[in-house]
Design brief:
alpha+beta; about 10% strand
Length: about 70
C-alpha cells in the first residue's frame, strides 16, 4: 500500500493490482554519484498520484510532508 495515502492496488484492482506499487527515491537520483547503490531505505513505496505530487513541488517535498498534508 502507498506509504502516503494508503491506497492498495490489490484491494482496488484485484489480481491485476497484486504486487504493484511505484518506488520513489527519497533523495533524488541526480544527487547520487556513480558509485552509490540504492538501498531499500532510500525508497518509499507510493501510488502513482502521490508519486506525481512528490515531484510537483519545486524543491524536495518529503513523504512525511505530503502525508501530513492529507490529514
Amino acid at each position: 500500500a502507498c506509504e502516503i495515502c494508503g491506497f492498495d492496488f490489490f484491494k482496488t484492482y484485484g489480481e491485476l493490482g497484486r504486487n504493484f506499487i511505484e518506488c520513489h527515491h527519497i533523495q533524488p537520483l541526480s544527487g547520487y554519484d556513480a558509485s552509490r547503490t540504492t538501498k531499500l531505505d532510500d525508497l518509499a513505496t507510493v501510488c502513482a498520484n502521490c508519486h506525481r505530487m512528490l515531484h510537483r513541488k519545486t524543491g524536495l517535498l518529503t513523504v512525511e510532508a505530503l502525508r501530513n498534508s492529507l490529514n
